[in-house]
Amino acid sequence: MSMSIYKRIDSLNITLPPLSAPVAAFVPYVRSGNLLYLSGHIAKTDGKPWVGKLGRELTTEQGKSAARAVAIDLLGTLHGALGDLEQVKRIVKLMVLVNSDPSFTEQHLVANGASEFLVEIFGHKGKHARAAFGVSQVPFGCCVEIDLVAEIQ
Amino acid sequence: MSMSIYKRIDSLNITLPPLSAPVAAFVPYVRSGNLLYLSGHIAKTDGKPWVGKLGRELTTEQGKSAARAVAIDLLGTLHGALGDLEQVKRIVKLMVLVNSDPSFTEQHLVANGASEFLVEIFGHKGKHARAAFGVSQVPFGCCVEIDLVAEIQ
Amino acid sequence: MSMSIYKRIDSLNITLPPLSAPVAAFVPYVRSGNLLYLSGHIAKTDGKPWVGKLGRELTTEQGKSAARAVAIDLLGTLHGALGDLEQVKRIVKLMVLVNSDPSFTEQHLVANGASEFLVEIFGHKGKHARAAFGVSQVPFGCCVEIDLVAEIQ
After folding, report:
1. What residue ranges in chain A does DSSP mark as E strands?
2. Which domain holds residue B143?
3. Is residue A23 part of a domain?
4. Which candidate from A29, A97, A141 shows the least CB-CB separation from C129?
5. Is the reported ipTM for this assembly greater than 0.90?
């Protein structure tokens, strides 16, 4: 089983990003007891902010791709924090923030890009509680931001 | 005491909804240790999305009613998850998202619809920490979305 | 070490506010196990709501000052809850809500006002996970709202 998560990642042609250096007075994750709290990760494409508002510059399908990209970065942070992704007992909670025009109402479909990816990687351990909603902006103008709580073995 | 929560629910003429089937890769709740994390629940009326923005289509009083309706659905999920609402040791935290016109500033009054209901049902165990704020949209255009963390016996 | 946190607070000419009385059916904090969940605290100046939207009435620098002011109030609540701030083992997580015009994209810089202050007070124990984003409104029209999770000794 220890191999399988990384094999699944490989089979999807995904390279996990390294742990990002904290850019300010906060850190990418904090562990408290058996819970690992990950900071909000913003959508990037080619290492740069993936900018735009859903319902204006970006389609739901593009937003879903961005949410998947954020989930890959969250996975990279989990790997960096734990050394071994098999240490993840459960993905507990996702908060999915979608940079939304006031008329855009498909935040749940955008969020599925992250949710479905986590289940693809972790199986039933990847099934999480979730809140997804539209926000008026995200740092750097990114289209999606996600934070995550995981339970550790 | 085990009777009293359900008696209180009955006395308010409330029928708890059944656990909703997960509509995507996420689930209505996840338990981790003694904490139960509930997914964001969106406001419904007659089983359909309760649509509208506060400060535009809906009044504060209507938003408060919607928040109470969401709290009833959260109660249904707690009951479905635990089998017995007496298992709730404490309602720990609510995040109340109010679909808000940029000029609407009474999110706290809307949120009271949920907060007051939980205290009505659980007494002092229902007193929770809370964050309430305005969002630019909610899935399906719903007026209110709430997620919840509860501590279990 | 027990002296040093309060000495640091004194040296910054900061007077901690008393615990605010709950204004509704919710409370300023809830403890569950080793975690302390603080309610969303809104920005105040001279005891009144610090009103305005970033990217419209307020500059990033003003928002950063407001975030620092909220962090001082959070510190007051931590002190009121624990009696002794040395009981704080770790600041685990901050959610920083910035009342934002849809064009404002510097929520991370605003949030640094709170993050940097907490590290100034708590040292490495103050380094936290964080999500910062723009919301369409905050209760009373305040410019910043922050909630916090802390781990206790």
Report:
1. 29-32, 35-42, 44-45, 48-49, 88-99, 129-135, 144-152
2. 2-20+28-152
3. no
4. A29
5. yes
